[in-house]
């Protein structure tokens, strides 16, 4: 069974606690790290960019990314990930039902899907199983 390094990017503390529990229950993670907004996530991703093949450095395989956050939202982070050609897979976390949110995010080939918040075990397992 493949295990992944996960970066959770969400500003909602209660949601993060719950999401972390659900993600860990999958048994599919090596490590999980947290950033509270897109700007912090981008800073981290750019800092590790030169170490992507170094096993001693936490490099995320999957980013779980909230759409609505202060400072830098999820859509702005997607734009930066593309601009810097960062090799990650992104699963969007959302409470949004706006079609334009889905359409905008899906413009990026590294966005692999959407999960509604709060996370549910079944949807999460299916999404991770179909990543590759």
TrEMBL record:
<dbReference type="InterPro" id="IPR001789">
    <property type="entry name" value="Sig_transdc_resp-reg_receiver"/>
</dbReference>
<dbReference type="InterPro" id="IPR052893">
    <property type="entry name" value="TCS_response_regulator"/>
</dbReference>
<dbReference type="Pfam" id="PF00072">
    <property type="entry name" value="Response_reg"/>
</dbReference>
<feature type="domain" description="Response regulatory">
    <location>
        <begin position="5"/>
        <end position="132"/>
    </location>
</feature>
<protein>
    <submittedName>
        <fullName>Response regulator</fullName>
    </submittedName>
</protein>
<dbReference type="InterPro" id="IPR011006">
    <property type="entry name" value="CheY-like_superfamily"/>
</dbReference>
<keyword id="KW-0597">Phosphoprotein</keyword>
<dbReference type="GO" id="GO:0000160">
    <property type="term" value="P:phosphorelay signal transduction system"/>
</dbReference>
<feature type="modified residue" description="4-aspartylphosphate">
    <location>
        <position position="66"/>
    </location>
</feature>
């Amino acid at each position: 069974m493949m295990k992944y390094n996960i970066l959770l990017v969400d500003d909602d503390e209660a949601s993060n606690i719950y999401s972390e529990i659900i993600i860990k229950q999958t048994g599919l993670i090596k490590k999980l790290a947290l950033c509270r907004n897109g700007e912090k996530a981008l800073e981290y991703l750019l800092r590790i960019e030169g170490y992507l093949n170094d096993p001693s450095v936490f490099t995320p395989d999957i980013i779980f990314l909230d759409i609505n956050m202060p400072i830098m939202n999820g859509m702005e982070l997607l734009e930066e990930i593309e601009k810097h050609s960062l090799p990650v897979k992104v699963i969007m976390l959302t409470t949004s039902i706006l079609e334009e949110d889905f359409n905008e995010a899906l413009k990026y080939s590294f966005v692999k899907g959407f999960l509604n918040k709060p996370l549910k075990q079944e949807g999460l397992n299916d999404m991770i199983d179909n990543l590759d």
